[in-house]
Write a structure and sequence with these properties.
Length: 380
Amino acid sequence: MQDLVDITIIGAGVVGLAVAAKVAAKNRQVYVLERHATAGQEISSRHSGIIHAGIYYPENSLKAKLCVAGNRLLYELCQQSSIGCKKTGKLIVATSKEEAEELEALMEKGNKNGANGLKMLSAKMLKQLEPNIEGVAAILSPETGIIDSHALMKHFATRAGSEQAQIAYMTEVVGIERADGGYRVEVKDGEGGFSFITRVLINCAGLSSDKMAELAGIGIDIDDVGYRLHYCKGEYFSVSGDKGKMVSRLIFPVPPPGLTGVGIHVVIDLDGRMRLGPSIRYVDEIDYSVTDEHKQLFYDSVKGFLPFIDYDDLQPEMSGIRPKLQGPGEDIRDFVIRDEGDRGLPGFMNLIGIESPGLTAAPAIAEYVAGMVDEALSGS
Ligand SMILES: Cc1cc2nc3c(=O)[nH]c(=O)nc-3n(C[C@H](O)[C@H](O)[C@H](O)COP(=O)(O)OP(=O)(O)OC[C@H]3O[C@@H](n4cnc5c(N)ncnc54)[C@H](O)[C@@H]3O)c2cc1C
């Protein structure tokens, strides 16, 4: 590794890899540092795999804009490559008159955000589309779908590599300090460790992104600036037998108030397997285990709109941890994606709180960050 490089990215999840693929062109030396042996072992392999349409997020937020843009970019990418995806469509189903009223506001929000093709369905129209679903009304989102996120990450890694970016696995960032010409990055690897200087440093460290911002302690107090993450666990239960074939679209409830999550929903993967999730529970530790403990909660959450599900159909499957800026009981927070130049750290770019719809938004986040990088490098 050279002593001075142009761009260093911390983290080879879907976001770090998408950014690497985008910024690696233009003859720049780009390094991606990843503490695990392979890419995407943390948040990017423990999610629903849904290409969201951009319905839920506050108007003009980065979440809304980058989700809508990412949705389009992902479908284009899948068409041009061998990445598996399917535009399944999705239904947000109301099971009461009160919920049906909430659908109106949700539809308006989605339309304002630019989510394409949303349509309000009556109970009769819902039955025609999905005869096994119970509901009094629904929103149909035809642009929602599912994607093979591992193939997507492989695609970004290959593209980054073909532009000479290097991904160093088993390489953990343990120190960051301001240095002449950029930032000195200290890493620990299998052979001990080393350090080098990078002109631009991009923090895509997912669940550790607040820690990385703190590591560059020269200027950022993560509590003062609101960067401290709260871990929020989402569990999934698989649905056994042939019941997965009883719906052909992704089925969501009307989201609970506060938008901590979008509610336990039906996820169908590219092989047609059905699972339910993710639940919402703030936790202190990263522990991915799932037991029967919350099975009743899952059953109760879906039985209103999925009458064909029996309690015994549900089996604990997997879980993921969300990197939330929004603490328990707080309002929804937007993604943090910024160059910290105004805090005296030019060329240090923080991406923090990249929870859902981060998978969908990844290619749009990469374009956004590439603009920031061009600006930083042209000014240095
Ligand atoms: C339960 C759940 C369901 C979700 N469902 C969806 C969905 O359906 N659709 C959607 O669009 N989004 C979804 N998301 C969000 C999406 O999965 C994430 O936004 C996205 O995967 C985040 O990617 P990332 O690259 O930021 O993080 P990660 O994939 O976690 O990557 C960060 C990487 O940084 C590395 N790292 C951390 N610290 C260091 C260090 N010091 N040195 C070196 N490497 C380091 C980690 O090892 C990791 O590989 C979901 C998330 C969860 C948790």
